[in-house]
Amino acid sequence: MPRKFYLTTAIDYANGAPHLGHAYEKVLADVIARRQRLLGRPTHFLTGLDEHGQKVQQTAQKRGIEPQVLVDEVAVVFQAMLAELNISNDDYIRTTEPRHQRVVQDFLQRLFDQGLIFKATKSGWYSVRQEQFLSDKDRAEDGSWPEIYGEVTQTTEENYYFKLSQFQGWLGEHIQSHPDFITPRFRRNQVLEFLKEPLNDLCISRPKTRLTWGIELPFDRSFVTYVWFDALTNYYSAVMDQGLWPADVHVIGKDILSPPHAVYWPCMLKALGLETPRQLLVHGWWTVNNQKASKSAGNATDTLGFARSHGTDAFRYYLCREMVVGQDADFSPTTFENRYKADLGNNLGNLVNRLLNMVGRNYAGKVPAPGADEEHEQHLRKLWSETLAKFDEACAEFQISHALEALWVFVSALNAYIETRAPWKLAKSADAADRARLDSCLAYVAEGLRLIGTLLLPVMPATAAKLLANIGRPVPTDYAGQLAWSTVGTGSAVAEKCILFPPIEPPPAPSPA
Ligand code: MSP
């Protein structure tokens, strides 16, 4: 039994509604997880909710409810989003669960016992929004505090610190010697840059006088732990009994790479004698009108409406196709509509219908055995092997947009092949050679569609399954033996008609903040 592939997403903050950024990250991870399973690799896919911290406490206070009541409500909404997006996670971790809290306390105690956590008093500038002390290097050029820090006040406080600085040398070497640890690679530089400055020890406590909504330090009950120390531990606490550690991939956004995932987390693990995750897959931001999609900007929640109006799979396709992993992408109703109409409706959808039509009309709905094998057909088979190689290569680097781009070259080629072959003309010919060409044309298109549907299963699970069913093919649960060009489709009964992507009126554009 091969070792399970263990994949996670960031756990979302439980202080608002899910939006496009959250949706995207889950879809990206889901595509990876589904593909791994099809490649025959048992997979464990974890996502969850980050439920502690000042923001949650404040939101609950404002609403006059207990924080637990708030996070219970939010968890329902986030889990509904996962269901709506057809996310195949195997587990969902919430940081208020006892299974998690126990591990966080155990980590803290172990570090404390090893002398890696110490108490100190610090005075300085404190950002309430980021829940952290700031230093002068956090100031903007004009000396002010950047907006991301919100209200900044002078505070003196006794707290516990983790000796992060002790691990700086090790971390630098680890990142250098594991070039794939941070993917895409250009993101590594940002972290190495950060490591050029000496690391400060990390404040891992908050006095309960200021924050009660957190996990208590086991060695001093008048403090709770810092939300990042708590949140990062989820990746381990959720699976510690299942022998799944270390994680293969943590999928995260660029805003939480450095320092949390690239610095705090590996150092915490190193200090605890645990292995570091194999890879951080860092995606960029979705923007709307070039502004980061976020809860505070209020510009992103409505975009989920596209999943409702155009179907979950069309939305998944759009997200995967439009964002080059690592870079930012701008969401717009126009680009969505264009992809929906051009790539899905006119290209793929049309191809399916052409096949069903011709097979229905000329072969009583049963895919013929291929006849003539002429240059066009050989070209298609060759193109398939090139497409597959490109698709696999892109997926190995998690570049799903490039994989889809390559696959659509093949979809277009099949449509062009039909145009050139003009099966409607061949069908009228009394010549046996033309009949053999017609056999081949429809057999080849059916085979091409089987392969397309099979490769698309992770991205558009329901639509790809529907496509396969409509051309009379079973939905594979394993890719073994499924991706080579073959004649398995001969004799398959195709549906009469199939509308994969119905024409749709776009919903109203996302309302501005
Ligand atoms: N709770 C922390 C993560 C803890 S992980 C141990 C957090 N939560 S978040 O809700 O703010 O963000 C969750 C994930 O969504 C992050 O990976 C973040 O980068 C991603 N996104 C949030 N807004 C985004 C966009 N506009 N675009 C793409 N993803 C972004 O950070």
Verbal overview:
With 513 residues, this protein is an alpha/beta fold. The longest helix is centred in the last third of the chain and has 31 residues, at 333-363. 42% of the residues are buried. The mean pLDDT is 95. α2 (54-63) crosses α3, α12 (333-363) packs across α14 and α14 packs antiparallel against α16. The chain is built from 17 helices and 17 strands. It is 46% helix and 15% strand. The chain has a domain at 333-513: Orthogonal Bundle (Isoleucyl-tRNA Synthetase, Domain 1), CATH 1.10.730.10. Strands 1, 2, 3, 4, 8, 13 and 14 form a seven-stranded parallel beta sheet that branches. 5'-O-[(L-methionyl)-sulphamoyl]adenosine is lined by residues 10-13, 21-22, 24-25, 50, 231-232, 234, 252-253, 255-256, 285-286, 292-294.
How does the overall form come out from the CA principal axes?
elongated
- What gyration radius follows from the Cα positions, in whole Å? 27 Å
Q: Biggest β-sheet, characterized?
A: 7 strands, parallel
**CATH homologous superfamily identity of one domain:** Isoleucyl-tRNA Synthetase, Domain 1
How many strands?
A: 17
Count of helix runs: 17
Structure summarized in a few sentences:
Helix content is 46%, strand content 15%. The protein has 513 residues and is an alpha/beta fold.
